[in-house]
Amino acid sequence: MNSFVDNVGIPLHYVSNIPSDLLGWLSNITVKRSDLESENTQLIQENLIYKGKLQRMGELQAENIRLRLLLNATELLMDEILVTEVIGVSITSKIHTLIINRGSEDGVYIGQPVLDSEGLMGQVTRVNKNFSTVLLITDSTHAIPVQVLRTGMRSTAEGISDFKTMTLRFISPTSDVKVGDQLVSSGLGGRFPAGYPVGIVTAINHKSGANFVSVEVTPSAHINKSKHLLLVFDATKKRS
Fold first, then answer.
1. For residue 196, is pLDDT > 60?
2. Is residue 170 within a helix (H) or strand (E), and if so which, with residue range?
3. 70 lies in a domain?
4. Is residue 91 part of a domain?
5. Who contacts 228 (Cβ-Cβ below 8 Å, separation ≥6)?
6. Residue 100 — left, alpha, or beta (φ > 0 → left; ψ -120 to 50 → alpha)?
7. Rounded Cα distance, 154 and 207, in Å
8. For 74-90, what is the mean pLDDT?
9. Quick one: pLDDT at residue 45?
10. Which one of 48, 106, 168, 196 has the fewest CB atoms closer than 10 angstroms to its CB?
11. For residue 99, is it within any domain?
12. What is the percent of the chain where pLDDT is above 90?
């Protein structure tokens, strides 16, 4: 009789433990999910940093062929960078600005270059304690010194308040520039570091009798899509 009761009690014991076992299992699942989300966020940021550093490899390779910027190779790969996130955008299509979640407390400064995983996005124009404003390279008031990666020819890329298009200033009809040419920052003016991708030449329009040709450029950066960005610190303005 006792053996029968014991045998019946065993499954009852398991049944009575189901709620606590289930809660424990759910708790483990919740913890693991939280850990995975945290790890995923970290991997996204690390991937962004690696892509930011790799952007300049094309410039280094081209300069290796032309034997011009090889002496600066080490410096080009040692920029200090900080991950930031877009928390606001301009409310009109004519003004191309972003608000990022980094400010003076993070060492952000006016004029600081900002890029995404593919290329230059713009520069910081206003700094607050915990957030800053970034003027995008596609804004009609923005211009950036560039050079053609293939030839080294210098020019200036200007925004026209179109997220997908910029233009090159004062390009002669005899200039060696072709559709598909990659443009990188030249470093002239000292505002942007040299060698970062700016855009790709997508159209060259010759107008009869005109002194210059119209050159259209598609930005390398995902101007109106990227959420996580990188702040690049100048060697003389490292964070303390």
1. yes
2. strand 165-171
3. no
4. no
5. 44, 45, 48, 83, 84, 85, 86, 116
6. beta
7. 22
8. 75
9. 82
10. 106
11. no
12. 48
